[in-house]
């Protein structure tokens, strides 16, 4: 079952500080989810100044229960980074199209 997760950060003065404090844990968990096949793609959502203000992820879990089990340990949830989380069931057509060589993305990445 595929899901598009769109999550927006809290907007208080300490929000970016909390995000940065747990970001490596979030990335490490993301690497495990990619290896297991549960995470297909993720991206930071940026504000007009290029600062991170949220996240979007394409996820694949066998059930909504498994999705919730991930959210229960996700550092951006437990670390009070994401304030609003939208969960959308989705169907991705030809997801293999994103499997391009690293060289394809040279000069295209902003983070």
Number of strands: 4
As residue ranges, the low-confidence spans are: none
CATH topology: Alpha-Beta Plaits
Helix content: 25-40%
What is the number of helical segments per DSSP (H or I, 4+ residues)?
A: 3
The separation of the N and C termini measures 29 Å
Rg measurement, Å: 14 Å
Q: Which of globular, elongated, flat, extended, rod-shaped describes the shape?
A: globular
Name of the CATH architecture: 2-Layer Sandwich
Q: Within the largest sheet, what's the order of strands?
A: 2-3-1-4
Percent strand equals: 25-35%
Largest sheet: 4 strands, antiparallel
Structural write-up:
With 111 residues, the chain is α+β, with helices and mostly antiparallel strands. It has one domain: Dimeric alpha+beta barrel (Alpha-Beta Plaits, 2-Layer Sandwich), CATH 3.30.70.1060. It contains three helices and four strands, in the order E-H-E-E-H-H-E. The chain has a four-stranded antiparallel β-sheet with strand order 2-3-1-4, with helices on one face. A hairpin with a 5-residue loop joins strand 2 and strand 3. The longest helix has 22 residues. The model has no long low-confidence stretch (mean pLDDT 92).
Keywords:
single chain, about 110 residues, alpha+beta, Alpha-Beta Plaits, 4-stranded antiparallel β-sheet, 3 helices, 4 strands, about 30% strand, globular
Brief characterization of the structure:
The chain has helices spanning 15-36, 64-73, 75-78, and strands spanning 2-9, 39-46, 52-60, 82-90. The protein has 111 residues and is of the alpha+beta class.
């Amino acid at each position: 079952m595929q899901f598009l997760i769109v999550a927006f950060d809290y907007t208080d003065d300490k929000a970016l500080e909390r995000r940065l404090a747990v970001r490596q844990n979030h990335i490490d968990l993301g690497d495990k989810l990619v290896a297991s096949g549960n995470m297909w793609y993720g991206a930071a959502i940026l504000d007009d100044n290029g600062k991170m203000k949220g996240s979007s992820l394409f996820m694949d879990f066998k059930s909504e229960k498994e999705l919730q089990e991930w959210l229960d340990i996700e550092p951006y949830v437990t670390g009070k980074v994401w304030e609003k989380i939208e969960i959308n069931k989705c169907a991705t057509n030809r997801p293999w199209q994103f499997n391009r060589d690293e060289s394809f993305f040279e000069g295209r990445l902003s983070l």
